[in-house]
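re: ur question from earlier - yeah i can do the single chain one, its not a big deal. heres the input i used so u can compare w yours
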Amino acid sequence: MMHRYLTRFFLLAVMLPAYGVVCGGDVPPDIKTLPVGGYEMAYLERGTGAPVVLVHGTLSDYRTWSGQTDAFSDNFRTIAVSLRRYYPDRWDGKGEYATLRQHAIDLANFIVALGSGPVHVVGHSRGGDVVLLMASSRPDLVRSVVLMDPSPLLTLLPQTTTAAAEAEKRRQFIAAAVERLDQGDVDGGLERFIDGVLAPGAWQKLPDRQKQVIRDNAYSIKSLLTDAKEPFSCADAGRISRPALLVTGENSPRPYGVMLEALEPCLAASEKVTIPSAAHAMHLTNPAVFNAAVLQFLTKH
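and the output i got, formated as tokens:
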């Protein structure tokens, strides 16, 4: 019953007309936009061939894929999107944030608007959850999926004391980060979040360019507390009939491993790869190995 409702909801959303609302920022000259559900979604496009859509996670945007767009474009039409409320949209944290469900609907709309048929979809962290929701409700739009450390979804995780403790630890540092943001301490909130996701001191070690991308998307953290409660079951994952590649980093934090362990047996056809000398941002810290693994998978499908 729930799946039928969500499928109808997605189909209705895809058919809704776009009313030309432009993302709330200046769009760089090399960036294109497509109308999706009344919103102009920004994206960077490189290359020709079968389309690959890259979906960023929290605190990121199309720029996070700079190590992939050129490498993938040798063989694929490579498209890195920026989701609603992310740069070049300039969101100040006021008003409603965009939910996982909204972003999944936007992604489905975007793929339909491309007019190129089913696509390969690559999602990192929260973007992996966006891909999961979209591909489960609209498998007709998907050629294959690559899920890089998708964020933990509580309804999919095992109901164990260990999993509950990990989820609560994550909730606490996210809540602490949001509190600092609301107090106007942007860098303090970002430091609390990045150190919680990666490791103590991680924020201070980031290059200035990467810090700026994160600052441009600082308030996207606000969606994470409710994102974790988004209903998504093993049966929902099983509706993704196309091949799936599960990617993690050798040093990725444990909650992402728990999520992948819960997800893997639910998928119809999946394989898994671990990127050495990398943690959660494996596409940034070890792009050569990451690119080779993902391109090998995409080429097969």
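The chain has 13 helices and eight strands. not sure if urs matches, ping me
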